Write the structure tokens for this entry.
Amino acid sequence: MLTKTVISACKEKLLTIKFELLNRVRSEFQNLREREVGGDEADQAVSMLAESRSFFTQMRLRSQLVEIESALARIDAGTYGTCEETDELIEPERLLALPWTRLSFEGAEIRETAAARRG
């Protein structure tokens, strides 16, 4: 069983990271909206590359936000800290380092071994 102190520290970290990610999403979106389109073909190509990079950054940030929201929901549901692979407690030090993790050290190794076997 995780202590309330560990859960509280993880929740605080998750909320801080969530706030930072939301600010980055807003900033990326604002930068994209402010970009001027026009100029010659080279300018347009550079603009398209910047838009593509911005799109992938937005997708990565949103994926991270989903993981954080999922962890916060697990805290609210009382299931936070249980490994999805082994159904055992995730190590507190792992949760403090990666508060959104769904896997213990052992669970992560199991998944990595299975992924390596698949190809």
About this structure: Residues 41-77 form the longest helix (37 residues). The helical segments are 4-34, 41-77, 92-97, 105-118.
